[in-house]
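Hi Y.,

Following your request, here is the sequence exactly as I used it, all 463 residues.
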Amino acid sequence: MICVPNYEQSYGEAIDLYTKAIELNPNNAIYYGNRSMAYLRTECFGAALKDATKAISVDQGYVKGYYRRAEAYMSLGKFKLALSDYQAVANVRPSDTEAKRKALECNKIVKKIAFEKAISVETKSIADSIDFESMALEGDYTGPTLEDGKVTLEFMKQLMETYKKQGKLHRKYAYKILLDVKQWFMKQPTLVEVPIPDEAKFTVCGDIHGQFYDLMNIFELNGLPSESNPYLFNGDFVDRGSFSVECIFTLFGFKLLYPNHFFMARGNHESHNMNQMYGFEGEVKAKYTTQMSQLFTEVYNWLPLAHLLNKRVLVMHGGLFTKDDVTLDDIRKIDRNREPPEDGLMCELLWSDPQPQNGRESSKRGVGVQFGPDVTNNFLKKNKLDYIIRSHEVKNAGYEVAHDGKCITIFSAPNYCDTMGNRGAFITLKGKDMQPKFTSYEAVPHPDVKPMMYANSLLNMLP
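Below is the corresponding structure, written out as tokens. Let me know if you'd prefer a different format.
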């Protein structure tokens, strides 16, 4: 999804106003089409799809309805349905060069997926085919080097300084970090238990989304990761922001340096489908190789799905579940080494969102579920937990406390997509009382590289 110059609250206001307009005149296709646009901008792809479909049913000649629905389908990974809508516009408007271009590009994606599926066979992992030892260092390379193949604190400091100056880590060391961190994650359980001593500080960060310079600001405000300053980053490290490579190698480096004091959870954007559309795959190919982008997919498949802090607080990227009686043991038993499915516990851990009213509703995103305070309370009571922390949603202050303090959202990418105007935030707590404290901060300047620079071109323009 591409963001336009405005603030999150303006999109919310637009949704409210178009909802009122629809109540007064439910037969105006433009109202549904414009509300669909606002839903697209706030990542409510399921709601956007519903509105675009309604706009078309009200007025089959409303071309923008097909455009809106096509982007909603694209965002949900339903490329064949998106192609059908782009072709519908091209057929109705033979002179619409933009519709023809999008139909052709979408058709290429559909054919590529079909071809890859047709030739797919069981093969060895990409990791097994990489010989990083044979990769030579060019004589003009001045970036950081591993010491005896290991990440050190000095390496990490040099790496961050290199990235700040828009330098690049040599592919030899990039591959080595990926291979080593994959081995570490493969040994981790799906639900990682994290003990926090009574007087120790622990920090939880939310979405970073490729905003490297804001990640550096977190470390400036809260200190570098260390054994005495542990962190948990709660998914969506990459995509949308165009410094995702820099973010992920910084985070993976700290994971290798402090494996028992630096934690990473999978987000919905740590997946092949999302990386194809929202920029990370294109960025890795531009800065390194196609092979490396494939290796990233293998690594992401092994990321843990949740963390249990002091047996009292559950942290996951998305949220809770469509069914009652889910236990921590159920989470532990999830087979996570795969692309996230479209339903079930793994999907909901990565995609679900809280809602203010009791009960459950279909997600406005089109994936996962919306869950109310009663669902949260029942889950906590059954599993003897104090509260949950999740991420996944932009919040104006960088955080939100909901469900009577039992459901906390933390989002760490300020001025998301360079346009949303939100603050970022992180949580600190101590093991003794586990009471969350919030630090909220503004975005910092970054080089003139636009978000979504490497994203699928079909998402870079919406009529």
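The mean pLDDT is 93.

Thanks again,
Q.
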